[in-house]
Amino acid sequence: MNLYDTAYRLAGEIKNSEECVRLRELRERAMSDETNRVLLEEYKRLQVRLQMSMVGAAGEMPGEDMQRFQQLASLLYMNADVQAYLMAEMQMQKTMGDIFKILTDAAGITFELPERG
């Protein structure tokens, strides 16, 4: 058994799964509107900065960035297409996290973030 072949088969299963197909459809629908696309891109940039600051990689997120992130989230979640896309994306991220945990457990590897002091 070649682990890479197995990984590529799993990747194909994920790519063709109902959840992933739906996510692509929802992303396309949400991004088809130029305003939504621009706002989503900014939202995603700020989301990454927030996540990095939470694990200490970039220090604290500036208050104005946090405020802008919250404003964007409120605005974006009022749009049904964008909300459906973001919810589907969160579910896919959870699924991928679960799969990653299954794989790391099988390999006997643990990934724990250090506690912040």
Explain what the structure shows.
This protein has 117 residues and is an all-alpha fold. Helix content is 78%, strand content 0%. The chain contains five helices and no strands. The chain has helices at 3-16, 18-31, 34-54, 63-76, 80-107. α2 (18-31) packs antiparallel against α5 (80-107) and α3 crosses α4. The longest helix is centred in the last third of the chain and has 28 residues, at 80-107. It is flat, with a radius of gyration of 17 Å. The protein starts with a helix and ends in a 10-residue tail after the last helix.
Write a compact overview of the structure shown.
78% of the residues lie in helices and 0% in strands. By secondary structure, the protein is mostly helical. It starts with a helix and ends in a 10-residue tail after the last helix.
Q: Estimate the mean pLDDT confidence.
A: 90
Low-confidence segments, ≥5 residues, pLDDT <50? none
Helix content range of the residues, please?
A: over 70%
Instruction: Write down the overall geometry.
Output: flat
Order of secondary-structure elements: HHHHH
Record field, number of beta strands: 0
Major beta sheet, specifics?
none
Distance between the termini: 44 Å
Assembly level: single chain
Computed structural class: mainly alpha
Radius of gyration from CA coordinates:
17 Å
Task: Bin the strand percentage.
Answer: under 5%
Secondary-structure blueprint of this entry?
Blueprint: H1 3-16, H2 18-31, H3 34-54, H4 63-76, H5 80-107
Helix pairs in contact: 2-5, 3-4
